[in-house]
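Hi all, long-time lurker, first post. I run a small reading group and we've been trying to get comfortable going from sequence to structure in the token notation. Rather than ask abstract questions, I figured I'd post a concrete chain and ask someone more experienced to write out its structure so we can walk through it together at our next meeting. Sequence below, copied exactly:
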Amino acid sequence: MSSHRRDFLRQAGLMLSSAAVLPSLARATEAPRPRTAPKALVHILLQGGMDAILTTDPKERRELNPDIDLPYAPEDIRTVGATRVGPLFKVLEPWVPRLAILNGVQCSTVSHLTGVQQAKEMRRTYPRARSLGLAGTLGTLRPLGAPLAQTVFEPLHGPFPLTPSAGRTLNLPWSEMPGRDRDVLFKLSRLARERPRRALVQEVLESQLGVAGGEPMQVARDLLARMPLEPLPELEKILPPGPDSYARDFVLDEWAHVFRDILFMVRHDLCNAFYVSGPFPRWDTHQWNLKVQGQNMGVFGPALAWFLKALETQTDVATGRPLSEQVGIVFSSELGRFPVKNEYEGKDHFPELPVVLLGPGLRPGVYGETDKRMQGQPISLRTGRPSSGAKDVVPTIDDVGATVLSWFGVEDLAAVGYLGERLDFLLA
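-- Answer (accepted) --
Happy to help. Here is the structure in token form:
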């Protein structure tokens, strides 16, 4: 066997998980997907802690206790229709009328380590050894069609490295050099266009299926068989280069790489669930909160806007429908920022966070209630707003996880360990 084929097979075996699918997933049932529901989930974690008052939950001074940090004037709040968002959401204004925002969500941790795992799951308790995450659970429940259950984008090095996963999972680390196509998806795409090599590699993969741990080889075979002759598009610059903006341009190139891959896989029905964890926890602003939060949103905001525009302009190869009608997006951090500044002009950890959803089958608007201390208050599970009813509750990430699965048509939530309440006010 030639060295390049051995390298490819070794990489496929490392990147594609060999663990068995959770038995409970086999017992779970998925209802027929509603016509307006998306087919693909993109779950994004902004590691560190996005500040709600600057983004999803803006306030005026009269709405807050005197010690709560409010670093902007009332005219800086962005009002789009009936929705108010913070000044850092300015770049997302064209899409604000389509956002479903839930403020004051309890995550019950102030630790990045536990928070990242809980945010990946969108629940606070989970089977640690065999956990798939929210995207992996949903992807594994989807009817077999796409060769991959989920694709995971996480840092290869750093404080929160790639974690073991189960099922038909492809791990694509954030590239270490922007603009360099070196991951297995790019190599598979290139290989698919070289027909003699494609046939030879498929033959080798077939020969590996009878050996122990052959599941990664089967996934690689199925993915290669489905891979189109169309190459991955060239990476685009999300923004033109600016003066003294190397760090911004570097991370924007990283986001362009990730979003390009997601668009390609959704267009060609290669995968229907994606988990994206930022390249490193830039949002952890214990110092200079306003400045650093602004820098972070100055990268993520334009990247997300670019992705949303691409979803509107690109279509599914099989149906010709815009991808914006088929992709659901969820983004949040793993914890929030404490509403009072510390002595370093920063904000420490806070066990509540906002969650933003976008896609077909949602009711856009701002839901959840926070008080003068920016703490989440009980709301009605039917309306998403306070009703002074005995059944009002403060929403948790468990509720968000259950609601996302319901959004995609999963009926038996308990069978896959999602025990939160379904937030009906979010679903159209």
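A couple of things your group might point at:
The longest strand covers residues 99-106.
Residues 17-29 have pLDDT under 50 and may be disordered.
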